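Record format v2
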Amino acid sequence: MLFLWEIFQSKTRDIMKEIEELVDIIKKTLEKCPWVKEQTINSLKDEPLNEARELKEAIEKKDFQNFEEEIGDLIYDSLLILSIAERDGITTQKKAIEKVIEKIKRRKPWVFGNENVKNSEEAVKRWFEIKNQEKNQK
Ligand code: MG
């Protein structure tokens, strides 16, 4: 078990290097690409939907080569829009990523807290209970 955990951790570190490079690439395109410079979160708002559709199609066709490409496109578009939002003072990359981390931890107390769930049905039920509680608090 410990051995598997070590492999997982080394793979996570590999991904971190690539994510850092992707963030650097986006930063560079924002500085040097005239087309990217002109974009706003509004001008790019449909791009993640287009990429998500292409990803869905690749999954449905079991086209795993295309799966890699389309999920990469979706990650790129998300990070690009987030970078543009930061450039335009809407939020920061750090804040947006912290927000999703907090949300996942809050909505899965059987993973990150002291709760227990018996099966996936119970996990889904609990997720929606917490989600609805949060909505009611707003
Ligand atoms: Mg694509």
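The pocket of magnesium ion is lined by residues 51, 54, 70, 73 (CB under 6 Å).
The helical segments are 2-32, 34-38, 47-60, 64-87, 93-107, 109-112, 120-137.
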